[in-house]
Every structure is written in structure tokens, then in C-alpha cells.
Amino acid sequence: MTQTTADGAPLIEARGISKYFGSVVALEDVSMDVRAGEVMCLLGDNGAGKSTLIKVFSGVHPPDRGSLLVEGEEVSFSSPRDAMDRGIATVYQDLAMIPLMGISRNFFLGREPTRGRGPFRRFDVKFADRITREQLRRIGIEIRDTSQPVATLSGGERQSVAIARAVYFGAKVLILDEPTSALGVKQASIVLRYIARTREQGIGVVFITHNVHHAYLVGDRFTVLNHGRSMGTFERQEIGLHELERLMAGGAELEKLEAELSGGGE
Amino acid sequence: MTNAATSGERLRRAGALQRWLTRPELAAVAGAALVFAFFAVVAGDSGFLTLGGTASYLEVAAQLGIVAVPVAMLMIAGEFDLSVGSMVGAAGMIIAISVAEYGWPLWAGVLAAFAAAVLVGLFNGYVVIKTGLPSFIVTLGMLFALRGLTIGFARLLTGRTQIGGLDEAAAGGVLAPLFSGTIGPFSVTVLWWVLLAVLGTWVLQRTVFGNWIFGSGGDPVAARNVGVPVNRVKITLFVCTALSAALLATIQVLDAGSADVLRGTLLELQAIAAAVIGGVLLTGGYGSVVGAVFGALIFGMVSQGIFFTGINTDWFQVFVGVMLLVAVLFNNYIRKRASEAR
Description:
Helix content of chain A: 25-40%
Structural class of chain A: alpha/beta
Strand content of chain B: under 5%
Radius of gyration of chain A: 20 Å
Strand content of chain A: 25-35%
Helix content of chain B: over 70%
Number of helices of chain A: 9
Shape of chain A: globular
Oligomer: heterodimer
Number of strands of chain A: 12
């Protein structure tokens, strides 16, 4: 694997990771890394092992074999909190925000700013509102009222706010679990645009998706998983969209389908 | 730099009026105003509007409100406590038996009642967290068990289910004015209610813990993912609901000079009704303390207002039932508006 995007040790690196659930091989000898200021796309069909791999990165599952390195240093996470403390933030597709809670309350949930001391220590609502408004403006979402429920935001905006939150709280590596797959074209484009912007801030992004078109729009490198095994990591310039698609679907299978359909149709 | 992201999206507007129209307590506030207007017109001449009439419905509202405030907060955190009514009966008997039968000083009896409440709250909370069973079931069990224990022990220890003769113990000391005193025409109960309402609102709206309450009820998994100690939040609130029941029991015992094992029967459902009328969502994550306060106020006004109208008070529950349905329908409509893209 050639280094072109950044120098120094990768932000996170997986070396020969294997993970088994009973007799099921979820991951077998998978290696990948993410550098600062790049979007690394993790591609694969359903059941390819994408979710398992990011759960290893985010501290949910310890790997059965292989090692995990953060900025060149070997680590073992015992909980998601450990990973968060090392600057690895995961934004889950549907669990990113709490719909009926206000936007600024959501933004600071679990990390509320406070003022005052002792029994008068309180949630600094003004500060939370101001920062939330600022951060949302940076993504291009103008809101009049930061206490309006998150449910009033569109799906794409919600994902973007969740990403903005992770960035604001100092994420160095951002793991995005299928951030665009539940969204329409227009909503997905909001998120993709924001992913590209996050990269410009020097953050390493792991973009998990099964949508090659979305991945190819923002990705710098692509790691393709198939049945728990890595099909390789590719630089953007060395692989085309069509080739990626072929790899993901297991190549031969898709070609067979193509031949079948073109042969059957008039 | 580029405004491409905004141009595609409509700019959101939320004026002051719109904001107010989507508050969870809107139905309760409007309902309270309506109910007040109704009884002012119908029963205004027969005493509803007098100071005495006001004091009487505020007393009923306050007694319910003291429990409804923490019950609403627990519901916002996503859990029910159906054992508060039984807790009122139990706490009252603990005070009465320890003071009247065993000659404890009043403060010790009250302390014992509050200690028992903490234990019941912790038990409810731990069982809900550890078993993962719905709190509806766990506290329903507690509703029966605690009432049964109260009746059983009362008969075992005293041979009776009602204990009187506490007037003397209640009269002296500092505790009496604290729990059964009066301020002008109003009883001190109203002050406790207001105090708890202010405290509850402050905690819910202005503290970190309050934010955790919303998070725990809104989506416990998502809240845990961002580091909210969901279990601690819920257990704390279970203790608070039980403590509020003990407070109400203390007020009732000192006020009446007696205790009855059946005190607080159905209170748990009235408290839930007050919270729901006040805009608290049954599934958690949404609502306000102010709403529950107005829910309790409606309860008080209807129960006493009917008396002033001269209508047979048997009809009181019909009123409550209809109001509950109307309020919930209205609240659903409000919430839908609040969560739709504006």
C-alpha cells in the first residue's frame, strides 16, 4: 500500500484482525488504516463484515486475533468510552440523535457544559445554544430556535449534525456507519458534501457504505470486504467505479448476471 | 464559503408564538384556563371564586401535585411508578404506628417513613434495571405487595387498620407548622407543591441531570452511547417518586391526626393522568413539570368545582376520564406539529 495522502503513522491501523462469533467467521485477517485528512471508504455487501470491523475500531468488540494501533501505538479497547477517549468517534446510522429532544440538548448530551458551583451548578443553556448555532452554521444549517426538536431536521441534516458534534468534541477519527443509506439523493448529497469538508479539517474519516457511487464521490482510498475477508485496498487513481462495483459484488457473480440479463432481454 | 447546502433547504422560522404553540404543557395550561372559566361561570356564585373555594381546590391539587411532579419526571425518563399510592399508605402507617403505638418522637417516625421510601425506590429501580422488565409490571407488583404489607403489619402490630390519636404528637414541635401549618387561608401543602414544581422545573430544564432525564427517556441506547448514566438517572428518580409519596403521607397524617392503610389508593393513576394531561409522553422523552403541575390543578378544580356546582360528585370521574382523552388527543396533535419539519 503506497502512502500518498499523509505522512507519519496512520491515525488508526488494523493489522490482521480476525473475529469469530462461535463457528461464524466474521472477519479473517483484515488489515486497513486511516490517515489524517483522508476519507477511507469501507465497502462491502450486507454481511461482508463492515459492521464487525467498525465495532472493533470503536471498542465494542475486542478482536480475537490481530492488533489495533492508534497513532502507531498498540491499544486494546475494553469499551466504546476507551475508543472515544482516544479520539475515535462513531456516528451510527439511526442512533445518532434523539428525535424529540431539542437540537442543542442533543448536541451536548453526555458532555453538557456547566456554570456555577455546588448545588447551583447548572446546564449552561446559553453556551450550548450559541455553540450549536455556530456549529450548525458551519455546516450550512440555519436555525432560528436551537430548542426545536431534532425531528424537525431532515435526515441528511441530522447525520450532519451528529458528525459536527463528533468533530466539535475533538474526534481525530470519524467512523460513519452507513450515513447515507437511508437517505434520498438530495439528503445524501448534504451528508457527502459535509464528509468532504470534514476531511479538509484534517480528520481521518472511515466511511462505511454499500453504495459505491456515494463512496466514489468522496473517497480517497477504498477497502473492499467480502465474506469477512479484505479484497484489498485501492487508491482512487488506480481503480475505477465499475471495477469497485465488481469487487464488491464478488465480480464473477455480477458478470454472470449481466450476461444473463443481456442475453435474455431483446 | 459556499451556501449550496442552505439554498436547497428552506430556512426555518420559529416565531415566539409558534414556539409557544408547540410547548408540551400547552394543553394543560389551556385546559386549566377553560376549566376555571367553566366553573367560574357555573359555580361562581356558590363559592368557587371565594378565597375558601380557591383554597379548597388548591389543597386537592397540591396533594396530587406533590406526587405528580416526580412521577412526571420519571415518565419523561421512560419509566412508570405505580407504587406511589401504596407508598403513601405505607409511609403514613409507619409514622402513625411508630408514634402512636411505640411512643417514638414524631421526627423519628417521619424519618423512618422517608427511609422506607428510599428503600422502596431503590428496590423498584434496581429490579427494573437488573431484570429489564417493564417498570409498569415491576411497580404494579410493588403496588399490591406494599399495600398488602401495610395492611398485614398494621393488623399484626396494632390489630387495626386505622390509627388515630396523633393530634397531640402533631400539635407541638417544629414539624407541625412545616407539614400541616397554614399561610393565610392556604395550607402549607400548597407551598410544598410550588416548591417541588420550581425545583423539578429547574432540574429538568436547567441542569445536566435534566438533560440526562430527557436523553434516558428519548432513547436509552443512544444516550448510553454518548455516556449518559441511564441506570443511575432512573434509579434516582424512582427514589424521588417514593420520597414524594412519603412527604404527602407526612402531610396527610399531621393534618388529619390519623393514618389509614388505604390512604393513597388510586393516587398512582391520578398522578399519571396529571402528567399525561400535562403533555408527558407515555413512552418517555418528552414533557414538562409545568404541564404536570397544571394537570394536577385541573384535577383539583374539577373535583372541588363539581361540589360547588351542586352536581352530584359521583360525576367527577366522568369529567376526569373525558378530559384525559381530550388532553391526550390534543397533545398528540401538538407533538406532531412540533416534530414535523417547519
